[in-house]
From TrEMBL:
The keyword Nucleotidyltransferase does not apply. Transmembrane segments: none annotated. Residues 1-24 form the signal peptide. It comes from the Bacteria. This is DUF3857 domain-containing protein. Keywords: Signal. InterPro entries: DUF3857. The keyword Signal applies.
Length: 671
């Protein structure tokens, strides 16, 4: 056994060495304007045969300049990419966003754009320069512009390269340098020189893939000063850091991962402070308390927390005085949702609320600000709970960041010790039943008066559960006739209601259910049809066909399976698996055996779990008199599994699928 393992490791190492040698053997240039014959002849990338293109090199160089007696930052970017397949030609279309607001004198500008394509035609290199008419500028918001350009004459086999500069007045902000993307990268280099006056903290993600050199270098800046305003050189030292990544694999969006960017090799910068000669050190490192203050002072956030209730008259008809606090919150939210529809945008700041009311549509932030004004009108204390939505990346743990905040939900005080959470994007949920995209593990309460707990985890604020009870009779022809009573709670109630609302009509909804589970619905009943409720109770009379011969009946004791196929079948997983929310499932079945039949084969009872109780499953089946009693209990307790745990997850779900597909064999009794 040990010899086999050693042999497998040796073979894997040999393959890895061969791949690296193949890349090294090719002549690749990291100089702009120079393309080698090997690059033109390259038809695939040995480290990733599926890649439609590969970044041969990407370089960034960041320098501080002193112009007009003030600092600015100059970013120099170069990129060379080999197009391997026709669908890789889209990488010849480049977009560069930059800041340009009429409300701010500090701006960014993109200059010195240059781009070429290279092709091998009849054995000769053909170089095509991008003309200026291929470059376009457009405004994408009141704060941001973008430059777009398309490199011409690009096809499978082409090599493309481009470079540009960004000049930024925001000397105190260094953008994150991301070394990985959806394409594999052969070589990535980031060279940054930071004057001694600027103190930055750096966070490296994927540091095991990044080589770093860090040294002090002399720099000289020209300062206009003196009575005659003469230019005088100022000598200083600077910190020069070079980050290099080689043969970096592609990081693509994958199933069940919210934000792939969180897992890319990258360098994140945060300004700690300014230390100019002759001046007192000015710290810039902020605190979450300072961010609270900034938000509360902002007209589009704190200003809207003072909004007057626009639906005071409409609320009078709700008879709120007779309700509990929880029912008041629910009634007010339902009234608001009838007035304002969510426009499917998540935001942190509100806009023109009068326009939102007039059009009847707004972002979740717009709706949330109105909701808080309505709740406060009836004495329900409430505050915004700010966060980064799950698809926008996690909040940094190393430092506070207002830039990473992008939306918020409403935290309403139900009792002295409990809060309930709501959001304007809820369509079929309930109190605490937030859309999965908002179920973050860190959200911060922003309040000028509330000095209680500031941090909340929202990923377990509601219990999501399905409980099903099935009582049925097995007929001699293999048909199963019975009744299923199901209670959907939490997220499952919302999902079920959403599915029902999406159907064309009730007939289409029934047909959809029948198709999914391959059965016939004889009668369907459901309570809690309203869109805002904590659970749904469903009752179905049904018939379902099992497999039968003259002598045998083959029946699945689950009747309705939890799952049929393993969703985790990848050979290798680079990213973690992130579940939407924890949940549980309980199915209890009682199946009457037809007269004249007996059980010949019965599945084994099992109970198993993942390490650390990440998930558990109990599968219990027994025969009592003429009935088959089956209990299936499943729970998914963890919602995050590292890539290294993928095989355990795969094995766990494989066992679950096998149990869900096991059959009971009934045999006709001999006379």
């Amino acid at each position: 056994m040990n010899k086999t393992i050693c042999l497998q490791k040796a073979i894997a190492l040999l393959v890895l060495i061969q791949c690296c040698t193949a890349i090294a053997a090719q002549e690749l240039s990291t100089k702009f304007g120079k393309v080698t014959n090997d690059e033109l002849l390259m038809s695939s990338y040995s480290n990733d045969s599926t890649a439609s293109a590969v970044v041969l090199y990407k370089k960034g160089r960041t320098l501080y300049e002193y112009i007009g007696n003030k600092f600015r930052i100059c970013y120099n970017i170069e990129n060379k990419t080999k197009i391997l397949k026709s669908d890789g030609t889209s990488y010849a279309n480049v977009i560069i966003p930059y800041y340009d607001s009429n409300k701010n004198t500090m701006k960014e500008v993109v200059i010195d754009i240059d781009a070429f394509s290279y092709n091998l035609e009849n054995g000769k290199e053909v170089k095509t320069k991008m003309k200026k008419e291929y470059i376009f500028k457009e405004r994408v918001s009141d704060k941001y512009m973008q430059v777009k350009f398309s490199i011409p004459n690009v096809k499978a086999g082409s090599v493309i390269e481009y470079k540009y500069k960004v000049l930024s007045d925001f000397y105190y902000q260094l953008p994150t340098w991301v070394m990985q993307g959806e394409l594999p990268v052969v070589y990535n280099e980031y060279d940054i020189t930071i004057p001694q006056y600027f103190k930055f903290n750096m966070e490296m993600r994927g540091s095991d893939q990044i080589e770093t050199t860090d040294e002090s270098v002399p720099v000289t800046y020209t300062v206009q000063g003196g009575a005659a305003y003469q230019a005088e050189p100022v000598h200083a030292t600077a910190r020069n850091i070079i980050f290099v990544g080689k043969n970096l694999p592609a990081i693509k969006d994958d199933s069940q991962v919210w934000c792939a960017d969180d897992y890319k090799a990258q360098i994140i910068f945060e300004l700690l402070g300014l230390d100019f000669p002759g001046s007192v050190y000015q710290p810039f490192t902020t605190t979450w308390e300072k961010i609270d203050e900034l938000l509360l002072e902002d007209e589009e956030f704190g200003g809207l927390l003072k909004l007057k209730n626009p639906f005071r008259e409409e609320m009078r008809s709700l008879n709120l005085m007779q309700m509990s606090t929880k029912d008041k919150i629910a009634a007010i939210f339902c009234l608001l949702k009838k007035k304002i529809a969510w426009n499917e945008n998540y935001a942190l700041y509100g806009k023109d609320i009068s326009k939102v009311i007039k059009t009847g549509s707004g972002s979740n932030a717009d709706i949330n600000f109105i909701l808080m004004s309505m709740l406060r009108e009836v004495g329900v204390a409430c505050d915004p709970l700010v966060m980064s939505a799950r698809d926008r990346g996690v909040l940094p743990y190393t430092h506070p960041s207002i830039q990473k905040l992008n939306t918020f939900v409403v935290a309403a005080q139900e009792t002295d010790s409990t809060k309930v959470f709501l959001d304007g994007s809820i369509t079929c949920g309930y109190l605490n039943v937030l859309p999965p995209i908002l179920l973050v593990d860190r959200a911060r309460l922003v309040s000028a008066t509330n000095n209680q707990t500031k941090w909340f985890a929202l990923n377990r604020v509601c219990e999501s559960q399905v409980r099903a009870l099935i009582s049925a009779t097995i007929m001699p022809d293999g048909s199963i006739v019975g009744e299923r009573n199901t209670v959907y709670s939490g997220q499952f109630a919302g999902r079920h209601r959403k599915r029902m609302n999406a159907a064309k009509d009730s007939t289409a909804f029934i047909t959809d259910l029948e198709t999914e589970d391959d059965f016939k619905i004889l009668q369907y009943q459901q309570d809690s049809k309203e869109d805002f409720n904590s659970q749904i109770k469903e009752k179905i009379s049904f018939t379902k066909q099992a497999s039968a011969t003259d002598e045998y009946i083959y029946i699945n004791p689950m009747v309705f399976k939890h799952i049929s196929t393993n969703p985790y079948m990848q050979e290798n997983r680079k990213l973690p698996v992130e579940m939407p929310y924890p949940y549980s499932l309980r199915i209890s079945n009682s199946l009457t055996i037809p007269e004249g039949y007996q059980v010949e084969e019965l599945p084994k009872q099992v109970q198993f779990s993942m390490d650390n109780e990440g998930g558990t499953c109990r599968y219990l089946v027994q025969v009592v008199d003429n009935r088959i009693l089956m209990t299936y209990i499943f729970s998914m307790n963890r919602i995050f599994f590292a890539a290294e745990e993928y095989n355990f997850l795969k094995e766990f779900w494989g066992t679950i699928v096998n149990k869900n597909n096991e059959m009971i064999v009934l045999k006709k009794k001999t006379l």
